[in-house]
Amino acid sequence: MLKNYRTLSATQDWDSTAQTIITQLPRDFLAQRYYIDMNSSGIVAAGTVTPIVDGGLKMITNIKVVAVGEGSSRTIFECNGTDLYHMNLFDYGAPVSPITFPLTTGSGQLHMNFCIDFRCNKLDPDDYSVALPTYLLSSLQLEITYALPSTTNYGSNPPTTFATNVTTRITCVEGIPEAGEDFSSNPLMTVLSKTLTADSSSGALESFDTFFQV
Q: Residue 7: which CATH number?
């Protein structure tokens, strides 16, 4: 198994408003992990902040990896920012990265980092036993839902707007199968079949619907 590590050029730009942003994920190799890095160098609180428990994390209300087909979709992974952060803490014994968010009226950094990890053994960098075979999918996307900063997800005196938007970068950790490697036992793989029935008449061009439901 060859290893591949890349940060996508496509980013998400969060301007503090409540919204869901969708990024198309590459469909080339076996997806083992996705790192999600959120950063802004210019966030200003409305006053001195008394942070709440899991403040900042609660602004990320949903993170989803979704396979989309014609007329249907399947959610492969779904979690909110708070739970994913604590899952990472449990899996690795430490956060992927410390949480940073401003607590004063001075311009400061907001930074959060998460990892969507498909490995069974979270400590084995070579575990591709249930890696996502993205090359079998017709579409794959990451959907992140952001909430407006408030006293219930940030703390007292949350920022009303972001002086500098939060940029979310996505890094893929992937495996490139080599000749002879068999992934037929991967439980995430599904055998798809479809019967196409042609008209018995001749002389006319006939079209077939070859899309699969995911």
A: 2.70.9.30
